[in-house]
Design goal:
Elements (H helix, E strand, L loop, with lengths): L3 E3 L1 H7 L18 E6 L31 E2 L3 E6 L4 E6 L3 E17 L9 E20 L7 E3 L3
Antiparallel strand pairs: 1-7, 2-3, 2-6, 4-5, 5-8, 6-7
Length: about 150
């Protein structure tokens, strides 16, 4: 199970911030949301990274992996009263079967018409380089949500 972190500018844009200049808006439920794998050469910056074009040069390559990553196909969003948690979820793990991939990070982004129009939403740090060698590379999302927001 992995924990994802928001990119600050994506979250600011979701609420109409004018400081998120150049960041396209997103709709978790209706937009195509993808997850791409990155090498250990990537260094996440929650404060400055905003578009897939800023990170795609560090995307992995290998058999069983297609550039741009995989689409999250089972997205939902829930609100839990009492705990006040808004959860952005995906109902299934993301897998790359029969793959040869070496990755350290995954980025979640809204797929636009090009990398320069695709806002980064968040990222996952696997904590170490993960390798699949003619096996299945799997990201098991947190059942409580890929991302959460807790209004206080």
């Amino acid at each position: 199970m992995v924990t994802a972190f928001w990119y600050g500018l994506a979250l600011a844009k979701a609420f109409g911030s004018t400081t998120a200049t150049g960041v396209p808006s997103f709709d978790w439920l209706s937009d195509t949301i993808k997850v791409a794998l990155l090498t250990s050469n990537y260094t996440p910056s929650q404060d400055t990274h905003k578009l897939f074009s800023e990170v795609d040069s560090r995307e992995v390559s290998g058999s069983g992996y297609t550039a741009g990553g995989a689409t999250l196909a089972n997205k939902t969003m829930d609100y839990t009263g009492g705990t006040n948690v808004v959860a952005f979820k995906n109902g299934a793990a993301t897998t790359w079967p029969t793959s040869a991939i070496t990755a350290r990070y995954a980025v979640i982004y809204k797929a636009g018409t090009a990398a320069a129009t695709s806002p980064l939403l968040g990222y996952v740090d696997f904590g170490a380089t993960v390798v699949s060698n003619a096996g299945t590379f799997t990201i098991t999302w947190n059942a409580g949500g890929i991302f959460t927001i807790t209004p206080a």
